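<tokenise_the_fold>
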Amino acid sequence: MRSIITALIFTTALSLIGCTKGGTLTRANGDQYTITSTASSKQMVPAIDTTSGGTFTGFYDEQLNILTFTLSWTDLWRTNKDTITSVNFYGPAGAKENGTLVRSLPFVSTNNEANANFGLAGLDGFTMSEKKSFLAGAYYFTINTKKYPNGIIRGQLTATKQ
């Protein structure tokens, strides 16, 4: 019994010492950006003749390399139901040209009008070279469906430093 109590006291002491040697917490000091876009089928290259639209509202922390965002979409289809299959990011490209696929976020929804929250971080975050083009406004996103696998709406992303 005495050896069990001694072992518990020793373990507790080591735990307390170990907890105090972790260092101090520091705040992330990187630049932070608001990311926005208004999307439509008319921005697709080539353009699609629908009234589909959407918005992208997000926040990007450059030091942590974390992008969190909300996508909203309206009127993606009228009579023939479709299914959203993914949200894709492309770049670098201007508003009138197509870029290379950079990230694809699989996502399934049969809602004609809705919104959803997403995030890119860790291994899915941007590389150093991608980050530069992304913050310069050379990236765009698409919402892709079964009938429109290359995108039904597109929006050029704008980064505004806070």
Summary: The chain has a mean pLDDT of 87. The chain is about 15% helix and 40% strand. Helices lie at 2-20, 128-135. The longest helix spans residues 2-20.
